[in-house]
What does this fold into?
Amino acid sequence: MSAAAPAAATVPSPRRNPHRHRRWRGSTRCPASASPSTPARSESDDPSTTAPVNERQIKLVEFYAGMGTMRWSLERALESDAGAVVTALASIDNSEVANAVYLANYPHEDASGVLMRRNVEHLSSVPSLDAKFGGADVWTLAPPCQPYTRKGKQLHGDDPRAQSFIGILESLPQLARPPERILVENVVGFEGSETRNALVAALDEAGYVWREYHASPVDIGVPCTRDRYYLLAKRKPLAFEDDAPRLQNFALVGASDECADGIDGECRSETRSTRLTSARMRRIVEYLERPVDDWALSVEADTIERYWRWLDVVSPSSTRCSTFTSGYGKTVYGGSVLASDAFVKAHCEVDDTSGRYRLVGPFKEEWCGEMRYFSPREVANFHGLDRGWRLPSKELTRRQLWFTVGNSISVDVVAALMRELMRD
It folds into this structure.
């Protein structure tokens, strides 16, 4: 990046500007053939209320459940497994925004008591875990990532936000009925923390075999970066089958001793910068909605004028966009903005440092109205949430939806990992 980043890169409060209300003019709408076409579910499709006669229940506990996308990923992973039905024992999160999205997709789980509006630290003792969640088939854990992010203070286990997860790790070896399988998600860099060391030590003591991966949607052809750390664990005598199809597009970065046999050091130290993917990269146009409210999504002129150097601009024909975060629409680092192919060709060039398209300065008034944010539905599309996934736009604001969807996972990636985790 050729210029230093601003001290505070948040979208400013609106101020008077003669170009502020210029309508977004970019031609980026997807053709009808590319528009998502999966029909929305009815409430009778809710798997929490319907099940096959000869069902095989997969009992799930979601810690730090967010809006329920771990459950959605497991359901997708088991679609081809006849008779397998995901039964949620508990979905735990203290975010009312995330809980609202969860209930829009699993509306019966409020009355059932599955959705627990609680802080995880209040449930991490051995008696509580055994009593409430003992005998589960799968635990998913996506603890707060702020203690491990590169831009944070990197306090790791000393950060108060890490304490609930550490409490679970301390309890795990003492449980009378631990889960059969575990999936953990966090940011890349977590694997270098003391918390990660505590995680694998607890798994070893509790009798699990485990593998660690770095994975991103781009590895499987989705044009959106979201590089994350994942750990899969199975309780012995369950094991990972090396003769089964491997997750070849994901980087295997660590494994327990039982899994490490036959895994060479080159594979275990592999990084995405040195690995090529065989996946066909899709274009952004395949994830766009039609119609879309261009006026409401237009990037304000004030934001363009002040922060044009740091906007990551993509077009419908692009095959990559930046990671969407919970700050999308609030900070210029929260994700990419969209413009027409013609605009990008005329006004942008590739930044040598980041490899992203940047506007070529100085600031020009004609830029205003030419760029827009992706809608929450489009961000959900990038995250693998098809049209069956409901976004309660009448109950939540666009900013709230951006926050919770941007803070979520890639269902495409996690479903692939879940298939490996559930393979016996």
Notes: The chain is about 25% helix and 15% strand. The longest strand covers residues 84-92. Confidence is low (pLDDT under 50) at residues 1-25, 29-44, 264-277. The radius of gyration is 22 Å.
